[in-house]
Amino acid sequence: MIDVKMDPRLKSQRFRQEREADWRRLERLIGKAEKGGMADLSDEDILAAPVLYRSALSALSVARATSLDRGLIDYLETLCARSYFFVYGARETLWGQLAAFFREAWPKAVKGLWRETLASFALLMVGAVIAAWLVSHEADWYYAFMPKAMAGGRDPAASTQALRDTLFSGGKDGLSVFATFLFTHNAQIAILAFALGFALCLPTAALVLYNGATLGAFFTLFASRGLGVEAGGWLLIHGVTELFAVVLSGAAGLRIGWAVAFPGEDRRLDAIAEAGRHAATVMGGVVVMLFLAGLLEGFGRQLITLTPARYAVAAITAVMWGAYFYGRRGARQDG
Amino acid sequence: MAKAATVPLEARMTRAFVTPEGVDLRLELGDAGQRAGAFLLDAAIIVGVLIVASLAVLLLGLGAIGAMGGKGAELMAVIWLLGFFLLRNFYFVGFELSAAAATPGKRIMGLRVAARDGGRLRPGAIFARNAMRELEVFLPIIILFAPTGDGGVESWMYLLGFAWAAIFALFPLFNADRLRVGDLVGGTWVVRTPKRALTRDMADEGAQRLARYAFTVEQMDAYGAKELHVLEDVLRQRDRRTLRAVADRIVGKIGWIRAADEDDYDFLSAYYAALRKRLEARLLMGVRRRDKHDV
Question: Is the pTM of this model over 0.95?
């Protein structure tokens, strides 16, 4: 009581006045970080932030329990929330994140998805086999699997010579536009396949099956004219990368759909979120794969017209991806 | 702290969010209107950038054709295609990866993305929540502008597709946490982080005047925390007539004998400080008095 007599201020008032300067400093610091990122902060600021954050947080606890100054509690709540996101937010630079992604996170995520990858690959193959069987029995089926716009004159009505020409015409005009178009188109389809997985796997599975069917129909047509080996080279030079990417995006979609349907031991929401994060990590890399596939398709295939060379490129890419994703990871850092 | 029977509107959007230090930050979720507003702002920005960039590429393309012929046009086409792709897929991802974890639209609406489990917001989560936009935004747009055909099966397919797209687009309206499908898959939610300035402590003035007003314990026990906060608002607004009315009510209730030239504001701020002191003293002993009916 003596203390109170000497100082007319309330306890909560003194509590606030003693700490206000620190809060204001934290607020300035967070404001700077939110506006310009980490670059604007000095080393001293970065070191001070967690300390200031924790003292603000404990002040919030105390204020909630002992103070009736509503303005103070509201202020501390928003300040603590903002600094929480700063202190526990992403601290790495964009380049650091990218490096960690390609070195560690992506191959690991792909490896962890091996079961879905096998299932997705099986779907692709089933689609291809069904289409091949149908087309070999009745050539008209070809049109069911291959839209006219995509076929570009490669249909059963074309002569063998015309078909051969489509495989080896190294037209060099507009290659870069073609490559870019292929990349953006395929990447969009892959992202769609991933997103569709949410609807209980079925649309994703259908998309992968359809992709396989297109492949099967195409290959059967060329094989029926004795152009099987050449068509294989034409397809695989970029196809190893592209089809792998399609299979992976299908696998990512299946993973999410499976978590939606069968969450297992976890709560459904948690299972979905976990699967989503895992699958999305795979997808981030798939976009890059498709970019490479687009380059191979747009440039590589048009410039390399020798079938053995095409197979060689296909084999090299297959070995590279396989070693990168599934190779043993120890002291070795590269793929 | 038992839950009140009628949950106030504000509390319905507030979620417990416990930091690793064990303090509940009571985050407020962004409501449907704010989310939609933020998205429309972002969409406007994207479309605006796309139009300006397309015009720029077109003009540059015309110049490039003049200078380099076909090669120039090719280059411009590549730039446009890649630019469109990046804008469509990485506008949201790019901004949400930044320190503010919000696109310009969200920032304007005072929103940000956060991980639902209270942990760090990981790039995978951001990618997942935005890849789902393909399903929620772009697919409905494609379906909306697809040729409908002339009756028959195609129209039914169109209707079916439309209903399916609508389910995803309106998904946030059907769950309490206002989660998009993307939020579900990414394990994220969108919370409000308004910037709030530290308002003046109303006890600062009152405490100075306490010496002139000697309230008895009974007089200070007339009200609870709820009335204290109403009084705080009245003092902040400092409207003469409201001050008068409130002062009259309190004088009547506590039986205060007014001095001849007593200023209403002086009296009320002194009473505010006295009441708060009393309530906080009891709070310190673990007794929280919610309102005047709470004994």
Answer: no
pLDDT digits (tens, 9 = 90+) for A77-120: 999 988 888 888 766 666 777 788 888 889 999 999 999 999 99
**Contact B283/A66, CB-based, under 8 Å?**
yes
CA–CA separation, A169 vs A172, rounded Å? Answer: 9
Strands B111-115 and B27-29, sheet pairing: unpaired
Highest mean pLDDT among A93-97, A321-325, B161-165 belongs to A321-325
Closest C-alpha to A164, from A240, A234, A214: A234
> What ipTM was estimated for this complex?
0.78
**Three-class HEC string of B84-111:** HHHHHHHHHHHHHHCCCCCCHHHHHCCE
B45 membership: H or E segment, kind and range? helix B32-68
Pick among B19, B198, B234 to test the A interface (most A CBs inside 10 A): B198
What average pLDDT is seen over chain A?
Answer: 83
Work out the minimum CA distance from A2 to partner chain B, whole angstroms.
15
Q: Which of A33, A60, A276 sits opposite B128 (nearest CB)?
A: A276
B199 interaction partners in chain A (CB closer than 8 Å): 71, 75
The Cα of B245 is separated from the nearest Cα of chain A by a number of Å equal to 23
Query: Residue A29: what residue type?
Result: L
Distance in angstroms (rounded) separating the CA atoms of residues A221 and A214 = 11
The secondary structure element, H or E, covering residue A188 is helix A175-196
- Residue A117 tokens read as 């990858």
